[in-house]
Amino acid sequence: MSATRNSEADGNMKESSMHFKKALSAAPALSLKIIAECPVTKARACDLTLPHCTVSTPVFMPVGTQGTLKGITVDQLEGLGCQICLGNTYHLGMRPGTELIEKANGLHGFMNWKRNLLTDSGGFQMVSLVELSEVTEEGVKFKSPYDGKEILLSPEKSISIQNSLGSDIMMQLDDVVSSTVKGPRVEEAMHRSIRWLDRCIAANKHPDKQNLFAIIQGGLNAELRKACLDEMIQRDVPGFAIGGLSGGEEKDDFWRMVTLSTDYLPREKPRYLMGVGYAVDLVVCVALGCDMFDCVFPTRTARFGSALVPWGSLQVKQKQYAKDFQPIDPDCQCPTCKRHSRAYLHALFKSDTAAMHHITIHNIAYQLTLMRSVRQSIVEGRFPEFIQTFMKRMFPSRDQYPSWAVDALASVNVTLE
Amino acid sequence: MAGSRMKLDLSRVVQGRGRLGLLKEVGRMGQHSVDIPGCLLYTHLGSVPHLTQDTLHTISCLPAVTHVTLSNMAEHQEVLEEFKGGLKKFAGLHDTVLYCSLHDPAAHCPTGHTTNKTVSVWGSGGRIELTAAKFMALQKTVQPDWYQSMADGETWQTGTSRKRVRKSVDRTLAHLDECLTVHQKSQDLEGVDIFGVVEGGDILEERVRSARETAKRPVAGFCLDGFQTGAMDQALRSQLITAVTQELPEDKPRLLQGVGRPDEVLECVEAGIDLFEGFFPFQATERGCALCFSFDITPNPERAAPDEEPHTAGGTQLNGDVNCDDQTHMTRFEMNLKDKRYQDDFRPLVEGCGCYCCRNHQRAYVHHLLMTNELLAGVLLMIHNTCHYHSFFRAIREALANDKMDLLRRSVLWNGKE
Ligand SMILES: [Zn+2]
Ligand SMILES: [Zn+2]
User: Fold this and answer.
1) Which residues are paired to B13 by β-bridges?
2) Which candidate, A51, A345, B138, B311, has a CA 20 to 30 Å from the CA of B216?
């Protein structure tokens, strides 16, 4: 019962053959093979081949900000089946700095990670972490929190740092505006992001081994998004990210911008939805046609004892688990659930940081397993059924389904039971 | 000798050079054996600090005995009682011997809370007072293979009065008798070994009296308490330990509490100690340090010296004093990875070390993890330090077997200010 179809087969996306031809000539450092497309939704399962290994999509990418993933060794991460993770350009550019990372044979060598890495542009961190930042046509100006020196992060500089890091996927520097901002600033940022994309493309020293992704901007304004898409899809980039979302906007606006973007993005290139990682968001946005996701949430929340489970989350540190001798999730196959009970983890949280590592491992396993199940269901042609089961497990009753998810899924022909 | 099963096979006893042997039939089922001199695996509630079972088992030279402390466990008594299966099962430990001590050798224990009938342990929720009855009730829920009897060990500070020291010896013997009475009647503790505790502070007569009296009781072995680093200088420690071990039966093991520095360990082995607590690698990890002392006893002089000079250049921050009051201070047996000079050092922590960290990572990376307060720093350092330290104990046994203790001592002290 194979629902696998060749990528040249019936395109249910809006696309032109022109894009496809361009893709063939584009970056040899990446290839996307569509393994299956959901006949009902816009979901797809692909093999994304990157310089270090092939990534099965849809994929969740854990975030390793400082060249490490929250107390997890690279062997553990590999053991969980992770094929790609993130590093943060801003943090790594500050400490230990690009010169050192170059000496260590890039970020891969520095952290001894044999699989793929994606780095962001550094711009987002700057806008969110550093108070004194000013955006001009040149780039983002900020004061170093370490020595107070004024630094300019230009598109060229961002790419230069990312070239030093040697990531498999680099992100363009974009002009980040909070998704709740409205008015002319959003339009300005969108146009500037397009200009900066061109500068980033020109600055990339390793197009043969480092893939530069464009970031679609335009806030919550459909016309601006569409205008941005029109411009950017004409650029010869190996992949696209949907940016400027998941920053506190209404979910109703969020999903409409996502689905608008995937409607226009070329079918043969990967689509990366930035900053999305909650289980429901992942499943819905896969249905809307996204391939790649990242979020700090699963690893950050683990440190506070919050374990992700098919019915939401479980706060291991809460008293009610002190005498609960079951694993976090009896169906989970991760090393934590195979060996330890909620009660032991509850007790260990009082004695040692290893408790956090146990939850981190479980949470990464949860995210990766969820995406593997999603992919499997797409390949087997039963993704709509998967969504139904997933939602029933996640919410106690139908009236607790978030209305945005119901609407978003309805827009891709899935009516929740 | 109710319940006592472990047997000590000494293959070599060199007077003033230590004891080499095998502790057999250890564990409730008697299925384990422990090489002597040996070291226990230090844990928090059964977990080696920072490590999960996956990261722990990258280490090949793990000891057979896992060490837990009542100070970690007392607050979980109710949970363990309801669980019923004992701590080993609760902590997901499978093939290991569980030894339970009273205090955590790496944690500060405030003084002034000991009475005639009680001792206190300090867990995450504060102080918990234990009577001998409560102490024994805890042992029944923890279900160790082997545990330390309750003891008043509050006499380690210099200047403790003779009267107080005498009282601690008396109390500790009384606690032991009370523990033994419960132990011998308890079905739950059948096959479990109990160690008596030798106290006596820095007073020779009290040490001898404590040892003699404890040796009269049906215990499987002895814990020597009150000798911890900071309590006294090594000359006095060696002298007292030698006096104590002379009073103890040859065929029972002696565990020394609170001593972990490599130089002190060597001295104490030669004074007749068999077992040590493995907290030292944890302390080094907590200060961002990697153990790097050499314990190479191959005769080739070029190889006997460490190939690097891990810390001679940074002498200013090294604490070379043998008697360091504060256990949190860096010792000369380690390198401080926070030091800026490791920033661009792409060598492994210790050349030739086969641990997961040294096989996969470089000093520069560990330095970066420490500078950015990343949790992986503790994980990698703990793997290396545990591996290094337990390999050191293997070297001690080899040195004892081959009459090379002098060579080993020279190798260990090489890094320092010789
Ligand atoms: Zn799990
Ligand atoms: Zn090592």
Assistant:
1) B19
2) B138
